[in-house]
## 1
Amino acid sequence: MRRDGSIRDFGLGAGTICAMLILTTQVSRGDESGISFWLPGQISSLPAVPQSAPGWSMGTVYYHTSVAASGSVAAAREIQIGRLAPNVNVSLNASLHAQADLLLLNPTYTFGTPVLGGQLAMGVTGIFGRSAATIDGTLTTSVGGFAATRMGSIGDSITSVGDLYPMITLKWNSGVNNYMTYITGDIPVGAYDPSRIANIGIGHGAIDAGGGYTYLNPATGVTLSGVAGFTYNVKNPDTQVQSGIDFHFDWSTAQFLSKQAFVGLVGYAYQQVSDDTGGHPLLGGFRSRVLGMGPQFGYIFPVGDMQGYLNIKAYGEFDAANRPSGWNTWLTFAISPTAATDAKPTRHLVTK
């Protein structure tokens, strides 16, 4: 704290916070069968603020979600696991319920040498956990004059590892303004089987790129952030479906109550902007959409000669289309380097 009471240095290890976490689980998100690479809400507080010191940092996240859907979303999941032929007519009166409990680890290295005048960081996220899903209802299929009806409940669960999600960020600081750009993607090595209704992987590659901005006023403790990007999805080799291009925007606002603690709001908007291809005619373009918003609380504290960061946030989802919706919570713990007090920071790497 400054003598006048204003906040001098947040030093949040924001490279770690921003990089957490690029993940996806096949229980709750848009596009093919209601699943997308980008998980809305994964980026929130101070994403564009450069880390206070170079070196290794580690982020750990516990993520829980509980969602539900009906209509075309449940039909898409049934079509996926049944591999119904395009000439089969389908009518469905069913509901999908899913939940997941996941642990995510995100080691990240922040370089000390500026790149294009900014701070470069590279990391990768791994995921382990359990996802479960059930479909309840009636599915009727017909070919020519023949019809078949499936009634009852289909349940599935899996505990395993997920895909890998590398990420590169580049950040710049100019007074209260902070800017970033990033590129990330999906390496589909996780547990995935198109015949299951619950997976911890999406079964195909993806590339995502975008940028963000953070306003951080040290005198007032007010911060506003937004990160936007687009996802290009590779065709799923198992289903021959290629999800459309997705747009996502994550935002946050917070007020620091002291040098250590802040409270605020977080939210996201997600919209698929082009159609899926290769899917069942019943589903059409199957463009997905969802909005979410909720509270957050953050706390910064020393961990030996490192710096710890604890954050909890929760989202309630609404205005969903062609994807399950419900609520999700995130509990984040990150450790990052602390700038040496006797070191002279460079113009670009100081976080104030």
## 2
Amino acid sequence: MISEDYKKNVSEYVTDFIPEQFRSACFNYLMAYPDIREIRLRLNGPVSFTLPESNLVTGMICTKDDIGFTVNRMTDGSYFKYEEIMRSGYLPLDYGIRCGIGGEVYTEKSDIKVLKNVSYVNIRIPFTFLTDTTELTDLIKRSQYRCSVLVFSPPCTGKTTVVRSAAYSLSSGAHKKRVCAVDTNYELQLPYSSEPSLCEYLTGYPKAKGIEIAVRYMNPEYIVCDEIGTSGESEAICQTQHCGVPLIATVHASTFDDVKRRKNILSLLENNVFDYAMRIVKEGRNFRYEIKSILQI
């Protein structure tokens, strides 16, 4: 359980990136609404907060200078040092926070070459770091730690929390398996001390390269990664499975049928990469899991 002091520390850290004239108000919002999951700043638009069931819109309007202040603060005054990762749409911060960045870009052959005129910043605040994954880990244990599981749901419905928790649970406690988490977006590692585990984190690695390195050099008993979907990732995962290393991964989808509509995911299913698919279903503020054999979907 995360303490109130910890939440306060995270809130203070986050609001330090906010322009000074909005900082106190944003901190007060975070303290008054503990369910806030995002602070969204948009050029010439209102600062807003994302709650589980609603959006809280304020009267604070961001100017170009306000957005510039926040980006400058998040990049330690060195925009170009972080430009490459920002072209991927985000900035990693402390406490497992990922900040979405967007605006105007210059492209070349569909590749983003330059990000300029940042017009929105979305600070995602993960106050929930672990969740109960007993249903998932029990399934894995019954398979004698050999099954691969694809976890899916729409955005912002707990996929990252599930795979982070699964990586931690499988590498500690009664399981104590060697787990390698390919943490491309800096979100899977726990930002606070807890029970020692056998999980190693490849932080910032592109998923395809991270999976390859994990298999070749880390000798894992499980690999965990978040948000797969590109052809390169699918190819790397297929190679992983040929080496006999099971995988837990996530993908954006709403239903089992949606999973099969994803071209690169379908190729993984057709190549028998995954044994099970686990759907996360949001019910109010709670979640439940639906697990099916790939042969059933």
## 3
Amino acid sequence: MPHNHATPHASDDMPKESLSEIAQLDQFYHSDRGRMVAHFLRKAIQPQLQLESQIDRLGFGYPFICLPSVNVPVFIPSEMGALAYGHGGEVMTASIESRAWPIAGDSMNQIFMCHGLEYCHDVAACLSEANRVLASAGELILMVPNRASLWVRDDASPLGHGRPFSKGQITRALTKAGFDITKITRALFLPPIGTRAPLRIAQTMDHLGHYGWGVFGGVMVVRATKLRYATKPKGGLVRKVSTSGALRPATGTAASLPLREEGKLVTNCTQS
């Protein structure tokens, strides 16, 4: 799907250092290098999402690289800033307090967290909210930076920002929040310098990396299921929730942010 360069976004006329985290992510994934990274992440994550399933799904963080053309509401934690992303002229994003999600419990079948949890100040509270919002046996699909990877040392990529996780750390955090982990895989096996190579060569590097240094993949992709009986942490914030149990998109843009329409995020990269 070709990129529409006429479509404005938050980073068009602002230096990178002045942008919020979410705007920097958006800027990166609309660059040539970002499109290359997105190609490999989609390849690993989209099969896990089962997008053909007609279920109540919620995005969290910056999930647009894997949900570029799906009508899905997205929560952006306030630690990351705000970005207006739309479908059919309606804003589908909301900047929220990551410790208190404005949606009723047991209202979603699947939550997809991508470039989100690593920016949250209170990881335990955020995961507890995800557990609350999911229906019984609902599924959390989570992508986080892999602490063992070279990518977390690359400040020019999103994986070099926020908090990376080891397998043990993310396992303990999810278990404590009331999730049963069903699968942990890794993705993005080419080294950061590999994104400057033609796609054909990068694909070969990624394939070889899967078998040669798989433990050092740039991200971990985790599938976890909500346990029916989960222990909730004490305390927390008072929540204002949707009484309907569902999110309703707003018309127009928020906070004077330009509205990026679905499908304007590049979903392929050109092979050189």
## 4
Amino acid sequence: MEDPADQVSDGYFLWEPQGSLQQRFPAEIGPGKMGMNSQIVVKPNSAEVASTVCEWLIESIQTAIRERGKCSIALSGGSTPKLLYEKIAENELHCVDWSKVALLWGDERNVPQDHEESNYGMVKRAWLQHAEGTRQPRAIPQVYPVPVQTSAPDRTAHEYSETIRKVLAESNDKAGGKSGPSNPSSTDRAAKTDFPKIDIVLLGLGDDAHTASLFPETQALQETDTLFVANFVPKFEAYRLTMTLPLINAADKVAFLVCGPSKRAAVDVVWHGPRQLEKYPAQGVQPANGELLWFLDVAAMPERRQG
């Protein structure tokens, strides 16, 4: 891959003086296309990705609160999101009224909340315990972790689906109704008109092109009516709990946070590969009426680019 310092523009992307790469206009990447409301931003390393996402997230939260009086966010697990949460804890606890922000979880491991592999536990350690330590109501968001019952994953998923609907109901009513595609495609599992709208969904990307806990060739990829499901993943011989593609695709903004060379092949196949949703689940993330953003570091950026 070319050195960012030596490249000015390749038609679709623009290197910034600091060695960053930002899409200048929507690119048509992959068999499903990324859509006209898409953007790709590439930074030199994971720390700068986290900083950029943090700036974007705060601005998006402020806009949502200004327009609707509140904001809902679905959080992701993973190392880059953890950097984001740590930056929020360090610098952003007083920049917005966090009491008006509802935190949901895009997916969760089927483990107790105090388990070291719990996504909720990671967010709590990186961010929430610092917010609670301020004892300032405006610094503390509304928190809705997945109520994991390890012996009853299906019940957990059902209960969390109800929680999601309840948390989002008032926000969607204030926004003037529920979101859905005006011309839904039969080839895409896009958002239905009866799906509630999350303001912001944060996602990671696995080396196998999974996102959230939507793993290749698992039952959750078939879901068209459910918000949140227990998804059995054979390679782990365990259940994962996850939002479904229709709920993700109903969101106002969806952002992938992807860093490291191990992710390059997955990004490449999601953008350029044949459309095989069962094999590459992240290809199914195509917001119906919302924005799709990819925040990557240089190491994760595929060498093959259109332009």
